[in-house]
Prior knowledge:
Distance between the termini: 68 Å
Family: Belongs to the CPA3 antiporters (TC 2.A.63) subunit G family.
Protein name: Multicomponent Na+:H+ antiporter subunit G
Order of helices and strands: HHHH
Keywords: Antiport, Membrane, Transmembrane, Transmembrane helix, Transport
Oligomer: single chain
Pfam families: PhaG_MnhG_YufB
Membrane topology: Multi-pass membrane protein
Amino acid sequence: MIELVISAFVILGGLLTLLGAIGIIRLPDVYGRLHAATKSATLGVISIMVAVFLYFVSTEGVFSGKVLLTILFVFMTAPVAAFMISRSAYTVGVKMFNKGHQDDLAKYENREKEISKN
């Protein structure tokens, strides 16, 4: 029974990673691509690492703290890295896709420019 759960986590992780790869190819701008890569790839890696953890606990009887730390590390660092990359892309001036975008940072950027002029 545990083999089915482990297999489900591995398949889910593979599908989420595949979904992220498709999103990188299909989405029009850097922000959408970064979102697809971060969300789905992070969840895919975490799903696969949960499967690894369950495998070692169930078959080997080993509680692997390294696997849990890897899950925590990926869960904490991937969103922060994506945020920093997207913020730097915005600061440099990478344009968003024209259809249906909402630029919430524009008024703050304009206000900062006005403050720095004074």
